[in-house]
Amino acid sequence: MSPLPPKVSVLVPVYKQAALVLETLNSIWAQNYPNLEVLVGDDASPDDTATVLKAYHATLPPERAAQLHLILHTTNNGISGNLNSLIEKATGDYLCITGGDDLFRPGRIAAQVAALEAAPSAGLCHTNMQLFASESRAPIRLFHAPTASVSRLQSLPTLTEANYVGGPCVMVRKSAVPPHGFDPHIPMASDWLFAIECGQGGIVYLPDVLMDYRITTTSITNRTGLMLDEAETTLHLTAARYPHLHRSVQRGLARVYRAQAAYGIMLGHLRRAGQLLWRSVKANPMGLTTPVLLGVIALWVLAVTEHTLTRRQILTNRLLARRRGR
Question: Are 190 and 250 found together in one domain?
Answer without folding.
Answer: no
